[in-house]
Amino acid sequence: MKISIIGVGLIGGSLALSLRKAVPVNKIFGVDTNSGNLNKALELGIIDATSDLDKAISDSDLIILTIPVNSIQELLPTILDQITKDQVVMEMGSTQQEILESIKDHPKRGRLVAVHPMAGTEYSGPEAAVDDLFTGKNMVFCDIVQTDPDAFEIAESICEALKMNPVFMNGKEHDLHTAYVSHISHITSFALALTVLEKEKSQGRIFELAGGGFASTVRLAKSSPEMWVPIFKQNKKNVLEVLEEHIRQLQRMHDVLEMEDYDALFKLIKQSNKIKRIIK
Questions:
Q1: Helix, strand or coil, per DSSP, at residue 115
Q2: Could you say which DSSP state residue 111 is in?
Q3: CA-CA distance, 112 to 100, in Å (whole number)?
Q4: What is the mean pLDDT of the chain?
Q5: Cα 232 to chain center, whole Å?
Q6: Other C-beta atoms within 10 Å of 100: how many?
Q7: Tens-place pLDDT, residues 240-276
Q8: Cβ(163)–Cβ(136) below 8 Å
Q9: Do 242 and 179 form a contact (C-beta atoms < 8 A)?
Q10: Strands 138-142 and 49-50, how do they pair?
Q11: pLDDT tens-digit profile of 105-147?
Q12: Confidence band, pLDDT 50/70/90 cuts, at residue 198
């Protein structure tokens, strides 16, 4: 199988490394608008060759998009226009509803498999790629009833080879749930980083006290704005909904602390401990 990966950053690079170990691959082509990323991916042996988009499409059995969601939405119709009935396209967007809505009537919609691997780190670029990023993680398949059976079987075999757990949702469900378990974590981390950076202006030694708790809470603030602004834009309604609830909970914490109602504060923290049922 010849594979083209559009976007050779953290996800695309890690995918290339993982696929090389897990499935029979003749050649992996890399496509990226960032020539530095392409050269680095080639230097690190992540990809076998660089390519432009048109050549990658014509030369590949499988085309995988691991680029920001706005770029996926922009490129997907062009890619579907050019593929044959034997080729498969996988897009790995962190939002799905808007992307899938935009190509729902495309005559080659069946050749597309929409997935979202629930894996990643706060780092970006091919240097951040690792070959076990996906092991044990969930792979969300979206609107799979719109995908041709043979195309799904290829994506399913990749999911199995990467030792991922398949989960099935429609695009609307996916975007709602990821707003609660992923997107809110990032926007909260960005806000916390801004809070601390603002305070640090007047009290410059604050970072001398930053330990593991702070680092683990704010690490997502290192994430790329090029990736996350399009996600927040496409999933605006759901992100605003969860953000409003988060602000309400912060206000509750603020109010009981201001009133020195430590029994109520204890109960709120105790209630929050139930998250252990979800995250072990």
A1: strand
A2: G
A3: 10
A4: 93
A5: 12
A6: 24
A7: 999 999 999 999 999 999 999 999 999 999 999 998 8
A8: yes
A9: yes
A10: unpaired
A11: 999 999 999 999 999 888 889 999 999 999 999 999 999 999 9
A12: confident
More confident residue, 24 or 137: 137
Q: What is the pTM of this model?
A: 0.90
Write the CB contacts of 259 (distance below 8 Å, at least 6 apart in sequence): none
**Rg of the chain over CA atoms, in angstroms?**
21
Bridge partners, residue 90, by sequence: 64, 113
CA atoms of 22 and 26, how far apart (whole Å): 12
CB 117 within 8 A of CB 134: yes
Q: How far apart are alpha carbons 227 and 274 in whole angstroms?
A: 31
Edge-to-edge, what's the strand order for the sheet holding 27-31?
49-50, 27-31, 2-6, 62-65, 88-91, 112-117, 138-142, 165-169
- Tokens 């072990």 correspond to what residue? 280
d(Cα 83, Cα 53) in Å, to the nearest integer? Answer: 12
Beta strand 112-117 with 138-142: parallel, antiparallel or unpaired?
Answer: antiparallel
The rounded distance, in Å, linking the Cα atoms of 154 and 89 is 10
